[in-house]
Amino acid sequence: MKISTKGRYAIRLLLDLAENKSRFISLKEIAERQNLSKKYLEQIVPLLTNSGYLKTNRGYQGGYMLSKNPQECVVGEILKITEGNLAPVACLENNPIECERSETCLTLPFWKELYKLISDYLDGITLQDLLDGNIKNTRK
Hints:
This protein is mostly helical. The chain contains six helices and two strands, in the order H-H-H-E-E-H-H-H. It has a two-stranded antiparallel sheet.
C-alpha cells in the first residue's frame, strides 16, 4: 500500500484548516503555507466537501473551513475518501472476497491481518492527534 499525494495533501489541507479555524481560508493561502499546488488542491476539495469535511463560502472573505471538529476527523476515513480502498492486496478490495483461491489460499490470513492492522491504526488517529503530536512509535 502506498498513499498517494492526493491522500497526503488532503491531510495537510485539513490540518491547515484545523490550525486556522477562526475563519474561512482561501485555497491560495493554504497552497502557499503548505507549499502545494493550488490546482491540485482544487481537485481534492470536492471529495472532502462532498464527504462532509469542508464548509465553503463564496465571495470576498470566502474559502474553506472544517465542518467537523479535528477530533472527529479520522485519518483512515480521509484516506479512504481520497485513495479509495486501502487494502494491501487486490483480493481484499471486495467484501465478500471474490478471489477463486480464497478458500485454499495460505497467504490470505496474513493479508487479512495486515489489512486489519492498517485499518485499526489509521482509524485510531484523528486530525487532533496529529495537531497535538500524539503519534507514538510503538515499535520495539
